[in-house]
Write a structure and sequence with these properties.
The protein has 3 helices and 4 strands, in the order αββαββα. It is an alpha+beta fold and 106 residues long. Residues 1-99 form the Histidine kinase domain.
Length: 106
């Protein structure tokens, strides 16, 4: 998840562009956020589908975010993206916190 989002943020941003990474938590979740100020995404509804690429010249197979979505779904991780073309994107992942007693049984 982290690798894919950081790679995409770098790939779709200008060389001198800033990328912000936030990690915080509340009572229920660890919240991971990546914010870039790159080219943005025109159609955020399709980016989770296989073989979707925003820019054909950037390379890649368009599988990364589909794999991220499957990891999120399998692990009850909530995910969201907000994006504005030519301004950038914010990807948010809310990872559930598990009680310590549950982890002891693993």
């Amino acid at each position: 998840m982290i690798d894919n989002n950081l790679s995409n943020a770098i790939k779709y941003s200008n060389e001198s562009s800033k990328i912000n990474v936030y990690l915080k938590s509340d009572d229920s979740f660890t919240i991971f956020i990546i914010e870039d100020f790159g080219c943005g995404i025109k159609d955020v509804d399709t980016i989770w589908q296989r073989y979707t690429r925003q820019n054909q010249s950037q390379g890649g197979f368009g599988l990364g975010l589909n794999i991220v979505m499957k990891i999120c779904n399998k692990n009850d991780i909530l995910y969201d993206v907000k994006s504005t073309p030519k301004k950038g994107s914010i990807f948010t992942y809310k990872i559930p916190l598990y009680e310590e007693k549950l982890l002891d049984n693993i």
